[in-house]
Amino acid sequence: MTDEHWSPCRSFSPAETGAAQWCARLRQAPSEKMLSDFKAWIDATPDNADAFANAMYVAPMSRDARTRIETLVGRTFPALQRTRGQPQRAMMPTSSPSSQAQTITGPSATPRFWMAGAVAVCVAAVFLMVGPQPYSLLPQFLTLAHAETYETGHGEIRAIKLPDGTHLTLDSDSCVEVLTDPHRRTARLRNGRARFAVMKGLRPFTISAGKGDVVTDHGTIDMGMDDGAIVDLRLRSGSARLITHQVKSPASREPIELEIDKALMVPANGDAPKVVSMPLADTRDWPSGWVEYRTVALGALVREANQYASVPILLDDPRLAKLSVSGRFQLTRTEVFAQRIAQLFGLSMVHRGDGIVLQDGKKSPE
């Protein structure tokens, strides 16, 4: 990854300027016309939404004004300066990961500073024109708040130690953004799966994905999110609670205390979180590549193994995919995994240009 340092000489983009202006305008109760214009602006481009989240992070405003804006947008924004009585739980600013997968080559990724530093000055300038507000913490933001983006490529599992001592493990094809400042520790899982072994600190650690936030003072949490934004949670040690947002039932918005090794699924459609009473697999050892299955279709097991394979495993007969299998498998060692499956079902392995083919052992190799 490349460092992105904000320079005080840079010019502001239209999205950054617009975000600062909207933060200032929305401090007061908006008219229907203003609200309509704002929604059209924030939905126009992803850059507008990202810039607005960054602007909200540094915008000096009262708790009531911030709550009103969060209600309009339908999400919670963090604030650099927490007003009296304002809850500490907050969502991270949105920031799209790089469009190209980046490989982590060391024990930690290179820090990438969000454009919120530039937006901070832009917001300050706009608020100075609109009316006097306290900006004493803005210089602190520029020097103390920072974010790091960690990504893994296909087949990689990486262990990373965060600045606060928390240990982060990223599964194959995963992306996590971590934000730290003097007031909070937050992370957002963008895709894939991650394990957070959170060190006890002066402030809680909030991990966000999909429609849920997991808050812990200390504990180990596995969090995964599929392509449909369905989140899978498992507390491995310590204690943590789940806070959901934008759910359909008011009762389901109450914090849920997580239980160790009890799988919990957070739907993407706004339904209440669900306990998975009989998980398909025991995944507690996934950072070492091992997963134990009670029973699983061979086709599903091969798909799991292919998440780590540089050369995919192929089943030449659709009927093979329906076979059931159970046991403990190391998915990260593709050749060894394929050999074991072949032995279990009496299949033959054929190496072709498009992958490792498992076929009926009675067939002659191609």
The structural class is alpha+beta
Termini separation comes to 43 Å
The main β sheet shows up as: 11 strands, mixed
Treating each run of at least 4 consecutive H or I residues as one helix, how many helices?
8
Given the C-alpha coordinates, what overall shape results? Answer: elongated
Poorly predicted spans: 1-10, 81-119, 127-144
Structural Rg: 24 Å
Helix content: 10-25%
Mean pLDDT across all amino acids = 78
* Strand element count: 17
Order of helices and strands: HHHHHHEEEEEEEEEEEEEHEEHEE
Residue fraction in strands: 25-35%
Structure report:
The protein is an alpha+beta fold and 366 residues long. The protein contains 8 helices and 17 strands. It has helices at residues 14-25, 32-42, 46-58, 63-73, 116-130, 138-144, 298-306, 334-345, and strands at 146-151, 158-161, 167-170, 175-181, 184-198, 205-209, 212-225, 231-244, 256-257, 264-266, 274-275, 281-282, 290-297, 313-315, 324-330, 347-352, 355-360. Strands 1, 2, 3, 4, 5, 6, 7, 8, 9, 10 and 11 form an 11-stranded mixed beta sheet that branches. A 3-stranded antiparallel beta sheet has the order 12-13-15. Strands 14-17-16 form a 3-stranded mixed beta sheet. Strand 7 and strand 8 (231-244) form a beta hairpin. The longest helix has 15 residues, at 116-130. It starts with 13 loop residues before the first helix and ends in a 6-residue tail after the last strand.
